[in-house]
Amino acid sequence: MTRSRSRKLKRTGFALASVPLAATMLVSAPVVMAQEDSGAATLEEIIVTATKRAENLQDVPESIVALGTEQLEQLHVQDFNDYVKLLPSVSYESFGPGFSRVFMRGVVSGDNGNHSGPLPSVGMYLDEQPITTITGALDLHIYDIERVEALAGPQGTLYGASSEAGTVRIITNKPDPSGFKAGYSLEGNAIAHGGLGGVAETFVNIPVGSRAAVRLVGWLERDAGYIDNVYGTRTYPTSGITIDNAALAKKDYNPVDVIGGRAALRVDLNDSWTVTPGVIYQKEDTKGIFAFDPNVGDLKVTHFFPEKSTDAFTQASLTIEGRIANLDLVYAGALLNRNDQTYNDYTDYSFFYDQCCGYGAYAFDNDGNLISPSQHIIGKDHYTKQSHELRVSTSKDNRLRFVGGLFMQRQLHGIEQRYMIDGLTSDYWVTGWPDTLWLTEQERVDRDYAAYGELTFDVTHSLTFTGGIRFFKAKNSLKGFFGFSENFSSRTGEAVCFDPPDPTPGGGLNGAPCNNLDKTVDQTGSTPKLNVTYHIDDDRMVYATFSKGFRPGGINRRGDFPPYKPDFLTNYEVGWKTSWAGNRLRFNGAVFDEEWKNFQFSYLGANGLTNITNAGAARIRGLETSLQWAATRDLMVSAALTVLDPKLNQAFCLDITMSLDECAATAPDLYAGKGTVLPVTPKVKGNLTARYVFPLGSFEGNLQGTYVYQGSGRSALLPSESAILGKQDAFGTLDLSAGLERGAFSYEAFVTNVFDERAAVGRYAECATAVCGAQSYFVPNEPRLIGLRLSQKF
Questions:
Q1: I need a labelling partner for 115 at 20 to 30 A (CA). Which of 60, 419, 440, 597 fits?
Q2: Sequence-ordered list of residues with C-beta below 8 angstroms from that of 557, at least 6 positions apart, any chain
Q3: All domains of the chain, ordered by start, with CATH?
Q4: Mean pLDDT of 152-164
């Protein structure tokens, strides 16, 4: 039983439907209006596939935001930071391109995000394939993208693990056998406090006969730096040794270079079967860091070792779609290979531990002379991730319809971290690793298996029930080496090796001296979903949903810490989707209540080693609304508001060996009481966007403005840490653009962050906050950017 709405479309529009209430409230691109024959303006129908079917977004009883191709172009979306700020359900912490942590609906504890810590709580997908990794979401360049979808709330039935709080999907434009298409875009820009950058992008769609096509996409991007590494010195208390950064002091310290491409082939074997293989490659090189030290100055740091990163990934994918009898079948498989290498300054750790604990006394050379104890880190991550999904569904026109399938994925994460002191005595080297005081050489494997299904029944033309369940099995393992040499510590590292028992150069995993870690944990369970939807008429609907999401548990490296268990998020939600005034006005929203039990929290323990524990419970309540109004044929206005109340509903203690009362009385720095607000996500976020189109001689002109407001937020869960790091202040930003179009050409000038507002998208210290918090770092949004763009499509 289906419902249709007649639309005659002129341009692509904007979709913001039943926006998830919790994490954010933001304006998305304005909906550009369609025109009926009568000349009245209407809003566009948006088709999404977030529920594994192609459906009108207004008919999907879920909180979904969809940003289409033209919205992404109009709002100058080119990377992760750009599109995430336009997804009302999403918040994030960023430590630089490719190293951002994504959250939805305020489900965030503020843990330290270590590579051997909990899996992400938000699933990231490229088309049908998961691309979620531990160190952060893939920072895919956004060009020739059909849409970005954000599904808020637990997606435990259709998406499973790491979609506990929601899912973000990037949907690419597919090859089209119907005709030749091509386009390009050239941009030049200048960033405040920095230099010049630019972007070159192109795509071509080439039919191969009447049943096949190839689509090729390429991009090249240069982002100018805006952080300065200014000259400075540092004197260590124990030795009196002074270091300086004269060789590294530089303006515009953090440029980014990106190069990449995408190729896909579509072959319609017959009227029922289609095969689409594809491959994507991207390499991103960064220099410097993307935070500043307020003690040094705005957008300034004083760092003493080279800082840079290279992040390269390749994903090969295969999708097979077909029909057998009355059933639609889909197979989607992918293999992701990602490698990153990072170089980081770690002198804050060296200085503050020398100041508090005399750490510098252990830094000497082979002759016994004290040397600079300054540490720097060389890190490498290697991922291979394969996923396979086989899905079957009945026609969406059936009164009783079903979608279900089987899913598996296996992610291997090779972790290498070298904490180095140049010139260090060879007695303290980890065996076989020169100048390496501490070595992490580990292999982490996360495996997920699932069977799922959803059954939907139209009781009447207006009333629909949906029930679903996902049965899952997760198996996670961690093995390898971590720690010091036996000469430096008798309690960690080589001193506790078991394979081989006597360390030898290269005797352990990937050249480590030995292995001192080999643990595995298995978990099984299920996540249900129930939904009831009532269509008041063809343009108005209300729904109620109960759903549950999960995140697998895992391994603690420290021997005396048990494995951490899965955590679960239970969601109770009531929402509405409505269209009024002949579809000129769209008003959507939702209210929800989420319970997050035994949430996983990672923190730095002894020797700066990450511990993970299940020791908290939170309740997140929210209200959100969105409004789009086609005021005239030429003016579109949209607005959104999210109000969020995310709090602990059970007191939290970092030390799991203590009772809560004992913790509050004797260790208040480790204690967060009931009612403590969860970190990172603001309580209020709002936006207002307007786009006006008008004739200008032989051109069509446009003007657009977007204002975004975000309230303040906490920087950490523990009040003691939040007080040291400081809160993330409220801010508002304004983006403006003006453009001209004629035929296939478009010309545009734009300014983002017009008033150069400085906003924090993260705060952190390089080591334990109690030790290094005096020198905390401020991760800012991008400063004001002025750009010009020329595009052509033919």
A1: 597
A2: 116, 442, 478, 482, 517, 609, 610
A3: 15-793 (2.40.170.20)
A4: 84
